[in-house]
Amino acid sequence: MEELKTFLETPNLVGFNANSVIKSTSYYAQQVRSFRQSQSNLTDLLISLQLFSLNRGDEYLPSTLPSRTGLTFWSVTRDVSTNELLIKISNTDTASATLTFELPFQNIAPTVTVTVLTGAATASNTPENPNTITPKTSTISVPGKTFSYTAPPISVNVLSVVAS
Question: How many independent structural domains does the chain possess?
Protein backbone atom coordinates (compact mmCIF):
# COMPACT_ATOMS: atom_id res chain seq x y z
CA MET A 1 0.00 0.00 0.00
CA GLU A 2 1.13 3.53 -0.70
CA GLU A 3 -0.27 6.85 0.46
CA LEU A 4 -1.12 8.89 -2.63
CA LYS A 5 0.29 12.09 -1.06
CA THR A 6 3.76 10.55 -1.46
CA PHE A 7 2.85 8.95 -4.79
CA LEU A 8 6.12 8.64 -6.72
CA GLU A 9 5.38 5.61 -8.87
CA THR A 10 2.62 3.11 -9.53
CA PRO A 11 1.90 1.37 -6.21
CA ASN A 12 2.50 -2.37 -5.95
CA LEU A 13 -1.10 -3.21 -5.13
CA VAL A 14 -3.14 -0.41 -3.59
CA GLY A 15 -2.78 3.35 -3.27
CA PHE A 16 -4.91 5.44 -0.93
CA ASN A 17 -5.68 8.89 0.43
CA ALA A 18 -8.40 10.26 2.72
CA ASN A 19 -10.97 10.09 -0.10
CA SER A 20 -10.22 7.00 -2.15
CA VAL A 21 -8.49 3.69 -2.66
CA ILE A 22 -6.88 3.00 -6.05
CA LYS A 23 -6.37 -0.60 -7.15
CA SER A 24 -3.21 -0.89 -9.26
CA THR A 25 -2.75 -3.00 -12.36
CA SER A 26 -0.62 -5.32 -10.20
CA TYR A 27 -3.60 -5.75 -7.89
CA TYR A 28 -5.78 -6.81 -10.80
CA ALA A 29 -3.07 -9.11 -12.20
CA GLN A 30 -3.26 -11.07 -8.94
CA GLN A 31 -6.96 -11.74 -9.45
CA VAL A 32 -8.33 -14.79 -11.14
CA ARG A 33 -11.90 -13.67 -11.52
CA SER A 34 -13.81 -10.52 -10.86
CA PHE A 35 -17.12 -8.97 -11.76
CA ARG A 36 -19.21 -11.94 -10.57
CA GLN A 37 -22.80 -11.26 -9.68
CA SER A 38 -23.07 -10.40 -6.01
CA GLN A 39 -25.43 -8.84 -3.55
CA SER A 40 -23.23 -6.15 -2.03
CA ASN A 41 -20.07 -4.12 -2.45
CA LEU A 42 -18.50 -6.07 0.42
CA THR A 43 -19.08 -9.32 -1.47
CA ASP A 44 -17.54 -7.73 -4.59
CA LEU A 45 -14.50 -6.73 -2.56
CA LEU A 46 -14.11 -10.19 -1.03
CA ILE A 47 -14.39 -11.85 -4.44
CA SER A 48 -11.86 -9.43 -5.90
CA LEU A 49 -9.36 -10.45 -3.20
CA GLN A 50 -9.14 -14.02 -4.51
CA LEU A 51 -5.53 -14.24 -5.60
CA PHE A 52 -4.30 -15.69 -8.87
CA SER A 53 -2.21 -18.25 -7.03
CA LEU A 54 -5.09 -19.52 -4.91
CA ASN A 55 -7.00 -20.75 -7.97
CA ARG A 56 -4.36 -23.05 -9.33
CA GLY A 57 -6.33 -26.27 -9.51
CA ASP A 58 -5.02 -29.45 -7.99
CA GLU A 59 -3.70 -31.14 -11.11
CA TYR A 60 -1.06 -29.70 -13.44
CA LEU A 61 -1.58 -30.51 -17.12
CA PRO A 62 1.55 -30.53 -19.28
CA SER A 63 1.56 -28.18 -22.24
CA THR A 64 4.06 -26.99 -24.82
CA LEU A 65 5.02 -23.36 -25.36
CA PRO A 66 5.52 -22.33 -29.00
CA SER A 67 9.03 -21.05 -28.20
CA ARG A 68 11.35 -21.22 -25.19
CA THR A 69 12.51 -17.67 -25.95
CA GLY A 70 9.11 -16.21 -26.78
CA LEU A 71 7.19 -13.49 -24.99
CA THR A 72 3.99 -15.47 -24.35
CA PHE A 73 3.75 -17.97 -21.51
CA TRP A 74 1.00 -20.07 -19.95
CA SER A 75 0.15 -22.80 -17.51
CA VAL A 76 -2.76 -25.23 -17.49
CA THR A 77 -4.24 -26.67 -14.31
CA ARG A 78 -7.41 -28.53 -13.46
CA ASP A 79 -9.66 -28.63 -10.43
CA VAL A 80 -10.47 -32.33 -10.31
CA SER A 81 -13.58 -31.90 -8.12
CA THR A 82 -15.26 -29.46 -10.56
CA ASN A 83 -13.53 -30.51 -13.82
CA GLU A 84 -12.65 -26.87 -14.39
CA LEU A 85 -9.56 -26.19 -16.51
CA LEU A 86 -7.71 -22.95 -15.82
CA ILE A 87 -5.46 -21.72 -18.60
CA LYS A 88 -3.46 -18.71 -17.42
CA ILE A 89 -1.69 -16.76 -20.16
CA SER A 90 0.81 -13.93 -19.92
CA ASN A 91 1.54 -12.10 -23.18
CA THR A 92 4.41 -9.67 -22.60
CA ASP A 93 4.76 -8.88 -26.30
CA THR A 94 3.53 -5.65 -27.91
CA ALA A 95 1.72 -7.78 -30.51
CA SER A 96 -1.24 -10.13 -30.11
CA ALA A 97 -0.48 -13.84 -29.76
CA THR A 98 -2.77 -16.45 -31.29
CA LEU A 99 -2.58 -19.72 -29.40
CA THR A 100 -4.14 -23.09 -30.16
CA PHE A 101 -5.12 -25.43 -27.35
CA GLU A 102 -5.85 -29.13 -27.79
CA LEU A 103 -7.70 -30.42 -24.75
CA PRO A 104 -7.23 -34.12 -23.88
CA PHE A 105 -10.82 -34.67 -22.71
CA GLN A 106 -13.92 -36.26 -24.23
CA ASN A 107 -16.46 -33.75 -22.92
CA ILE A 108 -15.78 -30.03 -23.35
CA ALA A 109 -18.23 -27.30 -22.34
CA PRO A 110 -19.35 -25.24 -25.36
CA THR A 111 -18.06 -21.95 -23.93
CA VAL A 112 -14.92 -20.67 -22.23
CA THR A 113 -15.03 -17.84 -19.69
CA VAL A 114 -12.24 -15.38 -20.42
CA THR A 115 -10.92 -12.73 -18.01
CA VAL A 116 -8.43 -10.28 -19.52
CA LEU A 117 -6.31 -7.53 -18.01
CA THR A 118 -4.65 -5.44 -20.71
CA GLY A 119 -3.63 -1.89 -21.53
CA ALA A 120 -0.82 0.25 -22.82
CA ALA A 121 2.63 -0.70 -21.51
CA THR A 122 2.94 2.55 -19.56
CA ALA A 123 -0.69 2.85 -18.42
CA SER A 124 -1.60 2.72 -14.76
CA ASN A 125 -4.52 3.43 -12.48
CA THR A 126 -4.25 6.86 -10.86
CA PRO A 127 -6.41 9.01 -8.56
CA GLU A 128 -7.59 10.94 -11.63
CA ASN A 129 -8.29 7.75 -13.63
CA PRO A 130 -8.71 4.87 -11.15
CA ASN A 131 -10.19 2.46 -13.70
CA THR A 132 -7.79 2.88 -16.61
CA ILE A 133 -6.94 -0.82 -16.48
CA THR A 134 -9.43 -3.28 -15.01
CA PRO A 135 -10.25 -6.91 -15.81
CA LYS A 136 -12.89 -7.59 -18.45
CA THR A 137 -14.81 -10.87 -18.53
CA SER A 138 -16.43 -12.42 -21.59
CA THR A 139 -17.11 -15.82 -23.12
CA ILE A 140 -15.98 -17.47 -26.32
CA SER A 141 -17.37 -20.51 -28.10
CA VAL A 142 -15.42 -23.74 -28.14
CA PRO A 143 -16.06 -25.88 -31.23
CA GLY A 144 -14.56 -29.02 -29.65
CA LYS A 145 -11.33 -30.36 -28.20
CA THR A 146 -9.23 -27.86 -30.16
CA PHE A 147 -9.73 -24.11 -30.01
CA SER A 148 -7.74 -20.96 -30.68
CA TYR A 149 -7.48 -17.87 -28.51
CA THR A 150 -5.81 -14.57 -29.29
CA ALA A 151 -4.16 -12.97 -26.26
CA PRO A 152 -4.02 -9.18 -26.58
CA PRO A 153 -0.66 -7.44 -26.39
CA ILE A 154 0.69 -6.82 -22.88
CA SER A 155 -1.97 -8.86 -21.12
CA VAL A 156 -2.77 -11.36 -18.41
CA ASN A 157 -5.54 -13.78 -19.38
CA VAL A 158 -7.42 -16.51 -17.53
CA LEU A 159 -9.48 -18.98 -19.53
CA SER A 160 -11.84 -21.26 -17.64
CA VAL A 161 -13.64 -24.23 -19.20
CA VAL A 162 -15.26 -27.35 -17.81
CA ALA A 163 -13.88 -30.55 -19.35
CA SER A 164 -14.03 -34.22 -18.38
Answer: 1
pLDDT computed for residue 84 by the predictor:
92
pLDDT digits (tens, 9 = 90+) for 89-121: 888 899 999 999 999 899 999 999 998 888 888
Domain at 58, CATH number: 2.60.40.1180
Range of the domain at 150: 2-162
For 141, residues 6+ apart whose C-beta sits below 8 A from its C-beta are 110, 111, 112
- List beta partners, residue 138: 114
The beta strands (E) that lie in the chain are given as 2-3, 14-16, 21-23, 59-60, 72-79, 84-91, 97-102, 111-118, 136-141, 146-151, 155-162
